[in-house]
Design a protein that fits this description.
The complex is a heterodimer of chains A (400) and B (329). With 400 residues, chain A is α/β, with parallel strands linked by helices. Helix content of chain A is 42%, strand content 17%. In chain A, helix 3 runs parallel beside helix 4. The N and C termini of chain A lie far apart (62 Å). The relative contact order of chain A is 0.13. Chain B is globular and about 60 Å long. The chains are: A alpha/beta (400), B mainly alpha (329).
């Protein structure tokens, strides 16, 4: 009996394994993204978002009458592994398109492979401005993420409204992302408020375990406000060490952080220890008091169920929107040919759960971020963004 | 004994090269990519094994020279437009130069401290690659390294029209085969024998008048230079040099390949490289829980074949031969 059960299971497993091979005519989207290691914190929700979008589109009958098929692979947050996977997905698995990658090293690396193989590739999260800079731009690369220029400018616009501040300090991780965002912030704040002086700049390394020296050095310069670009785990460590030293009290919580520390992914672990009153952002506020779009409400519920998490994630929307963008491009082109889809994507406007977005001539989506003051709400055990406002300082105006 | 001698007299490098030449013709485009990666990793692990298996030095930072080679070749070719024929040997020289500087300090320490210092130097190289945005591109790396001009390969008689990936594959296996031939000669030379003596008994080697540190340093420089060649090829193959190439996890990966294949055989580490690259690509395309599966497979292999895959195969072959041999002989 037992043997027979095992055999039956084995047969079932074989059938299941073979099934995808029979699913001929699907539109295949290769999706290399970090699913292990610390970067999986962002990679997993982005992938879940993409899988939700594929399920939603397929439930409506797919695109051009064909079902979509997502081929997720663990890029291990490493550029050479992402390159290997991109080649494998294109050549061996016959992927029609590529989406995914997380870091600012993975995305430009995969972009080269996309160019070589003439396959459209949309990056959901890489912020580095160089990805679509003129030297690296080619017909097949698209970015659905904010970039470091936008991030620094948004921070500067918000801070320029704090009328009584004169002395500003910055703190950001010491690598290209932090350096670029701070450079953009400093340029913009000098334009908007020539009366403001930058009194201190701290550059802790990525993954710094002890921020004490940076915190005390910054406090000794007595800034009125701080632009911060620490994110994720670094921000959590920073806050836990800065609180007891009276850092936030000294600056009266006048800190703006462009590293998505307004997302539930960061506010939830900090809970009641969050420095309430600072300003921050998220791609998706998830909890959206005020004028939440109806489409977003339904989507967030679906996202929470799919992530099996009571508060969801601020990153899933990036994966979801990338697939919607690609589907809209295929629909408009009426073909899965990457040359045609690439032409269709330029200037294309499409719906996402957080409003309409479009790709500009530079192959960047006009993706900004939702900013707001981080406040307590009796309904949640952590900080939420008060009245999330969409900031997209780049010229294309988008509202919904 | 005779059989072993017979095995040794076969020019394995030539045999494997002649088989590998057929991959672009017979395999898929993807097999060519996989073949290129395995060939480059094979050179990388053989260079490490000159330290590990031949000289008995455990380096935890061999990726430093691999990465330096990749960046050196990439920067020369991309930023300065230097042709491959100059950039490629230059990458080896630059990597060897850094190996000379770092090695000078490392060989002064023994065993564990040597290993720790190699790791420390590798992490310094990583930090420089990760932060020196103007030269190395920082965390974004140095994408878009151009392919070398390889049209001449297609114009060779009998090869016909090849894609650039095929041409680069052929160039890679040629360079790796030449490097293998040189390294083989180095290990067999009196110099190589001295390294083995140092591995087996450093006190005695010093006692008979060898300058142990100088020999170890020489091995370190040669190993670094060949790792630099592997890195140069890898940067072009992946179309970019990235800080990951220098990170400690890359050094660990190459150590695993070497030990997995067997450090006591010249062809052990390449077999380990083949096994790990193949396993990685098979497992990651079927499950996202690849670290678990890979860990279990490695555990079984390391316990089942204590001398590595090649060591295990040779031992199995010897046992089989003894069983088949008539008792009275």
């Amino acid at each position: 009996m037992r043997v027979r059960h095992v055999l039956a299971l084995a047969c079932a497993a074989c059938v299941l394994a073979v099934l995808p091979a029979f699913a001929e005519g699907t539109i295949k989207i290769g999706f290399p993204i970090p699913l292990s290691g610390p970067a999986a914190l962002y990679g997993v929700p982005i992938l879940k978002g993409a899988q939700m979008a594929v399920a939603d589109l397929n439930a409506k009958g797919g695109v051009l009458g064909r079902k979509l098929e997502l081929l997720p692979r663990d890029s291990k947050a490493s550029a050479d592994e992402a390159v290997r996977l991109a080649r494998e997905l294109i050549i061996k698995d016959n992927a029609d398109f590529l989406a995914g990658t997380l870091t600012s090293a993975e995305a430009p690396a995969v972009s080269t492979i996309a160019k070589e193989n003439k396959i459209v590739f949309i990056a959901p999260s890489a912020k580095t401005a160089s990805l679509t800079a003129p030297a690296n731009l080619h017909p097949y690369i698209f970015r659905f993420a904010s970039n470091t220029t936008t991030e620094g400018q948004a921070g500067a616009i918000i801070m320029s409204k704090w009328k009584d501040i004169k002395k500003v300090a910055t703190i950001a991780p010491d690598y290209a992302y932090g350096r670029d965002a701070i450079a953009s912030f400093v340029a913009e704040i000098k334009k908007l408020r020539p009366d403001i002086a930058i009194v201190d700049q701290q550059w802790p390394k990525l993954g710094e375990p002890d921020f004490t020296a940076f915190i005390t050095a910054q406090m000794s310069k007595q800034p009125d406000a701080v632009f911060c670009d620490l994110y994720g785990g670094d921000f959590v460590t920073f806050v836990k060490q800065a609180m007891p030293l009276g850092y936030f009290t000294a600056i009266h919580n006048r800190l703006a952080d462009g590293g998505e520390v307004g997302a539930v992914d960061v506010t939830e672990p900090l809970g009641a220890n969050y420095p309430f009153g600072i300003w921050s952002d998220a791609y998706d506020p998830v909890i959206w008091p005020g004028h939440e779009p109806a489409a977003h409400k339904a989507w967030v519920q679906e996202m929470k169920d799919s992530l099996k998490s009571p508060y969801g994630s601020g990153w899933a929307i990036q994966g979801y929107s990338v697939i919607l963008a690609l589907a809209a491009g295929i629909e408009k082109a009426g073909s899965t040919n990457s040359d045609k889809v690439s032409k269709a994507l330029v200037g294309l406007t499409f719906d996402t759960p957080a409003g309409k977005r479009s790709f500009n001539a530079n192959h960047d989506a006009d993706t900004g971020e939702f900013w707001g003051e981080m406040v307590k709400d009796p309904k949640y055990p952590f900080a939420i963004i008060k009245d999330p406002t969409y900031y997209n300082p780049e010229p294309v105006a988008v509202t919904d | 004994m005779n059989r072993v001698a017979l095995g040794r007299s076969i020019p394995w490098t030539l045999v494997v090269f002649l088989i590998a030449v057929w991959v672009p013709a017979l395999g898929s485009r993807y097999d060519t990519f996989l073949g290129t990666q395995i060939a480059i990793d094979a050179l990388f692990v053989v260079s490490l094994n000159l330290l590990l298996g031949t000289t008995g030095l455990v380096s935890f930072g061999h990726a430093a020279y691999f990465g330096i080679g990749a960046y050196a070749c990439g920067i020369l070719m991309k930023t300065y437009g230097v042709p491959f024929v100059i950039a490629f040997p230059a990458a080896a020289l630059i990597a060897a130069f850094f190996a000379l500087i770092f090695g000078f300090f490392c060989v002064r320490l023994s065993a564990l401290y040597f290993a720790m210092l190699t790791l420390a130097f590798a992490q310094i190289v990583w930090a420089i690659c990760f932060k020196w945005n103007a030269v190395t591109g920082g965390d974004e790396g140095l994408p878009n390294i151009p392919y070398p001009k390889l049209d001449w390969i297609s114009s060779l008689p009998g090869l016909g029209d090849l894609s650039i990936a095929d041409e680069f594959y052929l160039l890679t296996i040629l360079m790796v085969a030449l490097s293998f031939a040189i390294l083989r000669q180095v290990i067999r030379s009196p110099f190589g024998r001295m390294l083995t003596t140092i591995r087996d008994n450093p006190e005695r080697a010093a006692f008979i008048g060898l300058n142990v540190r100088a020999y170890e340093l020489a091995a370190f420089v040669v190993a670094g230079g060949f790792a630099g060649l592997a890195g140069a090829l890898y940067g072009i193959f992946n179309r970019g040099a990235f800080a990951d190439y220098v990170f400690w996890s890359k050094s660990a990966e190459v150590l695993i390949m070497t030990i997995l294949g067997g450090i006591n055989y010249f062809w052990g580490p390449p077999v380990g490289a083949f096994a790990l690259v193949w396993l990685n690509q098979e497992i990651t395309s079927y499950t996202q829980y690849w670290p678990f599966v890979l860990g279990v497979v490695l555990l079984v292999l390391l316990f089942g074949f204590p001398g590595g895959i090649v060591g295990g195969l040779v031992a199995g072959y010897e046992r089989l031969r003894r069983m088949l041999r008539p008792r009275h002989a």
